[in-house]
Write a sequence for this structure.
């Protein structure tokens, strides 16, 4: 009788272990679950995160530049410009005294040339000027200009606030200027074009792309293309430009 009881208990334990083994073999491990979750998270990464990865850079050490007070009401008479002054910078370097001014015209409305559009179109221009004082007289070093015309929708043409910087990345005593501006003619919530312009002397470098929009169900834009001019730029210029792009690329609607 005792032998039968022992045998019965042994059989029950054997079957129980088999059931447990099957249960644990069939149940996904935490490792498998974690892997599946990670794959899902990777697939759900937003455009903003992808763009952020694309333009990760080493931080650039910025050499300070001696800046002077810039005043819109204290522009030397020999400095000529179009539009209204938005912002500017004034500083000294090896070239002498420098003044950059960024300007924009008022948005103008005119009768539309296209019968399928509304009654009017809009146009606007923006400019950038760099003047250098040589022998006490300011002369033009470079000028940039961009515009939108024949826009029957909402017109956007603006310098990005606080994006104008003066640096000396390669520490050669000649400062670089960098700024960004956005432009669009649109009737929906789509990304603006975004442009970054960088100069050292009259050498121009550029990055062009779109701003990034992330709001409610919208997650669009953020792509960019580096101009070939950066191929011959001094070390650190492109890294700094990408840092500035990343800093100012987000478009927010109040």
């Amino acid at each position: 009788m005792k032998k039968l009881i022992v045998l019965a208990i042994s059989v029950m334990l054997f079957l129980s272990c088999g059931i447990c083994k099957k249960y644990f073999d069939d149940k996904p491990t935490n490792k498998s679950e974690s892997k599946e979750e990670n794959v899902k998270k990777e697939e759900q990464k937003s455009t903003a995160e992808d763009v952020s990865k694309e333009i990760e850079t080493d931080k650039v050490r910025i050499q300070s530049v001696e800046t002077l007070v810039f005043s819109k009401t204290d522009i030397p008479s020999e400095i000529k410009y179009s539009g209204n002054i938005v912002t500017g910078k004034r500083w000294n370097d090896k070239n002498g005294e420098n003044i950059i001014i960024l300007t924009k015209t008022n948005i103008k409305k005119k009768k539309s040339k296209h019968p399928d559009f509304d009654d009017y179109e809009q146009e606007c221009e923006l400019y950038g000027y760099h003047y250098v004082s040589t022998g006490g007289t300011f002369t033009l070093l470079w000028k940039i200009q961009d515009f939108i015309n024949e826009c029957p929708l909402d017109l956007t043409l603006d310098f990005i606030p606080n994006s104008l910087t003066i640096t000396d990345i390669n520490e050669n005593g000649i400062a670089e200027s960098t700024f960004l501006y956005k432009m669009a003619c649109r009737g929906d919530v789509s990304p603006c074009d975004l442009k970054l312009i960088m100069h050292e002397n009259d050498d121009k470098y550029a990055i062009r792309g779109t701003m990034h929009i992330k709001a409610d169900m919208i997650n669009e834009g953020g792509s960019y293309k580096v101009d070939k001019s950066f191929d011959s730029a001094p070390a650190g210029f492109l890294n700094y430009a990408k840092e500035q792009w990343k800093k100012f690329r987000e478009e927010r609607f109040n």
Notes: The longest strand covers residues 120-134. Residues 1-9, 11-37, 39-53 have pLDDT under 50 and may be disordered. The radius of gyration is 30 Å. The chain is about 25% helix and 40% strand.
